[in-house]
Write a structure and sequence with these properties.
- There is one protein chain.
- By secondary structure, this protein is of the alpha/beta class.
- It is 46% helix and 13% strand.
- The protein has 3 domains: 209 residues, HUPs (Rossmann fold); 85 residues, Tyrosyl-Transfer RNA Synthetase (Orthogonal Bundle); 92 residues, RNA-binding S4 domain (Structural Genomics Hypothetical 15.5 Kd Protein In mrcA-pckA Intergenic Region, Chain A, Roll), CATH 3.10.290.10.
- A hairpin with a 3-residue loop joins strand 12 and strand 13.
- Helix 10 packs across helix 11 and helix 13 runs parallel beside helix 15.
- The termini are far apart.
Length: 425
C-alpha cells in the first residue's frame, strides 16, 4: 500500500520536519524555476528492513515526485560494505557482497511501498565503483585532507579518545560524495546525521566543475524507546513490513513525550491540528492513550490500509483487555521470595534504604530461577522461554536473564501464566 501524500503545498513540503536547506532559499528558487530537479537519496542496504524513520524522508520524496521532480535512488552496494560510520562510536564490521545483495532484495521492495516506482530512477554504486582503479581512488582521496575528515564530530571524538578509526571509514564520505557527481544530483536528502557527508558531496561537485547540489536535512525520528534515533542496531524500530497488529502495538508502546515528534514526522496531519493536540496534552484535556490510538491507526493505514488499521485497533483492545483481566488473576509472589542477583548490591548503602529503593525503582532478579521456583519448570525450560521471547515484564518483552522488577510488577510467562510481585515478606 502506498501512502497518500495528498495535495501538499510547496511551503508545507519545505517546512514540515525540515531542519536545514543549504544554501537557504536555493531550493525554493530551484523548484519555482520550472526545472525538473534530480533528487538524490542514498540508502545503504546494510540491514534488510526499512522502518518508519526511513519513511520520513521517503514521504517527502513522494510529495516532490507528485510535483513533477525526478527521484534518484542510490543503492549503496559499495558503501554498505564499509558500513555508514555516522554516529558510531566503534568501527563497524565490513559486510560481504552477498550480504549486501541479500539485504538489497527486501530493501528495494520496501522502498517502493512509499515512493512511486514508475517515477524513480534506480542506480547502483557498482555502476561506477566496480570500474574504479587505484589511481582514481587516490585522486579522489587527494581532494580532501585528514583535517577536513576530522571535522566530523564522531570521527574526531574517536580519534581524540584513541579509539579505532579505520582508513576505510574515512573513505565513506568521499564515496557518498562521488555518487552526487556520478548522477548529477541537484538536491541530496538525508537526516541530520548525514549533513557532513552531503556537504562533502556539494564540495566535490564544485571541485569537479559541476553545479553544487542543494543539501536538504530532516529531523530524525526517535525509536520506540523515545530516546535514541530509530535504528535496527538499537532494536527500537517500527518496520514498514511489520504486521498490522505489531505496528499498532509498537506505536502504543512509545513514551508520551515522543508523541508530538511522531505526529509531526510520521503523519500528514495539518500543522494546526498537531498544535491543537499538543496544547490539549499540555493542559491535560486529552488522554495520551487516545492520541496514540489515533497515531497507531494512521501509521497502520499508511502501510496496510484502512481495514487493517481497524482490525489492528480492535485486536489491541481485545488483547489489552485480556491482559488487564489476566493481571487481576495473576499468582502473587512475595517480595521476600524473589531470587535477587548478587548481594554485593548492598555495599555502600544500608539494607533498609536498599530495599525501599528497590521496591520503588526496581532490582534485578534471576528470572529463570523465579520461573522454575514458582511454576515448577526446569531451569532449562525456563531459560528457553526467556531466550525465545516468551517472557514479559510489565507488558514489555524481555530476553534478559536478569530483568528489573518492583512492587506491583506483573510477569507474563508464555500466554496464560502471570506472576505479580507483592509487598510481603
Amino acid at each position: 500500500m502506498t501512502p497518500d501524500t495528498g495535495a501538499q503545498t510547496l511551503d508545507y513540503v519545505l517546512a514540515r520536519g525540515v531542519i536545514d536547506i543549504i544554501p537557504k532559499g536555493s531550493l525554493t528558487e530551484a523548484l519555482e524555476s520550472g526545472k525538473k530537479l534530480r533528487l538524490k537519496l542514498g540508502l545503504d542496504p546494510s540491514k534488510p528492513d526499512l522502518h518508519i524513520g526511513h519513511a520520513v524522508l521517503l514521504r517527502k520524496l513522494r510529495a516532490l515526485q507528485e510535483m513533477g521532480h525526478q527521484v534518484v535512488l542510490i543503492v549503496g552496494d559499495w558503501t554498505a560494505q564499509i558500513g555508514d560510520p555516522s554516529g558510531q562510536s566503534v568501527m563497524r564490521p565490513m559486510l560481504t557482497v552477498d550480504e549486501v545483495k541479500a539485504n538489497a532484495e527486501t530493501y528495494m521492495r520496501q522502498f517502493f511501498h512509499v515512493v512511486d516506482k514508475e517515477k524513480t530512477e534506480v542506480r547502483w554504486q557498482s555502476e561506477w565503483f566496480d570500474d574504479f582503479k587505484l589511481d582514481e581512488v587516490v585522486r579522489l582521496a587527494g581532494r580532501f585532507t585528514v583535517a577536513q575528515m576530522l571535522q566530523r564530530e564522531d570521527f574526531r571524538q574517536r580519534f581524540d579518545a584513541k579509539q579505532p578509526l579505520g582508513i576505510h571509514e574515512l573513505l565513506y564520505p568521499l564515496l557518498q560524495a562521488y555518487d552526487s557527481v556520478a548522477i548529477d544530483a541537484d538536491v541530496e536528502f538525508g537526516g541530520t546525521d548525514q549533513l557532513f557527508n552531503m556537504l562533502v558531496g556539494r564540495e566535490l561537485q564544485q571541485a569537479m566543475g559541476k553545479e553544487p547540489q542543494i543539501v536538504f536535512t530532516m529531523n530524525l525520528l526517535v525509536g520506540t524507546d523515545g530516546s535514541q534515533k530509530m535504528s535496527k542496531s538499537v532494536g527500537n524500530t517500527i518496520d514498514l513490513e511489520d504486521p498490522p497488529d505489531e505496528q499498532y502495538g509498537k506505536v502504543m508502546s512509545i513514551p508520551d513525550e515522543a508523541l508530538m515528534s511522531y505526529l509531526e514526522l510520521a503523519t500528514d496531519l495539518p500543522d494546526e491540528e498537531i498544535t491543537y493536540i499538543g496544547k490539549q496534552l499540555d493542559e491535560k484535556k486529552i488522554n495520551p492513550m487516545d492520541v496514540k490510538k489515533r497515531l497507531a491507526r494512521d501509521i497502520v493505514r499508511q502501510f496496510h490500509g484502512d481495514k487493517a488499521a481497524e482490525n489492528a485497533e480492535a485486536e489491541f483492545g481485545r488483547v489489552f483487555q485480556q491482559r488487564e483481566v489476566a493481571t487481576e488473576m495473576a499468582q502473587d509472589v512475595s517480595w521476600g521470595r524473589l531470587p535477587f542477583m548478587d548481594a554485593t548490591l548492598l555495599v555502600g548503602i544500608s539494607a533498609s534504604d536498599f530495599v525501599t529503593n528497590a521496591k520503588q525503582n526496581g532490582v534485578s532478579i534471576k528470572m529463570a530461577s523465579l520461573i522454575s521456583q514458582e511454576l515448577g519448570l526446569s531451569m532449562a525450560e525456563a531459560r528457553r522461554l526467556i531466550e525465545q521471547g516468551g517472557v514479559e515484564v510489565d507488558g514489555e518483552q524481555t530476553k534478559s536473564r536478569a530483568p528489573k522488577v518492583k512492587i506491583g510488577s506483573t510477569i507474563r510467562i508464555g500466554k496464560h501464566r502471570f506472576l505479580k510481585i507483592v509487598d510481603a515478606p
